[in-house]
What does this fold into?
Amino acid sequence: MSNRRFVSSLVLAVLAAPALVFAQATPIVTLSGTVSRGPLSADVFNQRLSASVPAVQACYATALSRAPTLAGVLSLEVSFGTTGATTRVGPATNGVASTVTDAALIACVNGVLSGLSVPAGAAASTGNSVVVFSH
It folds into this structure.
């Protein structure tokens, strides 16, 4: 199964489970990632994304206090430079469309992902991250 189909299937599965997902009061954040360019392994990228879930969940909780029905998908591209530090976070080119338009939530998530780093040996890589927000 291609990465794009896997991510699309994950997004649809989460959004299609209203009894299990949307009935809960706790903000739920699911992050998944694929590497589109460079030597970075998908495992390392997903480990870094997993470590950022609590911070992204805090972003979402804040957004829900302003917009209680906010849910959807945010598709981002994260690029890393030669030192392993994040050099860019922006809209992804992975074919998964973002449905979240809340500017404050997007800025907060971009800030969290801007703090990611990878080993220098995996530098000059680009990863795509799909963030699914539900409650």
Summary: The first strand starts at residue 28 and ends at 37. DSSP finds five helices and four strands in the chain.
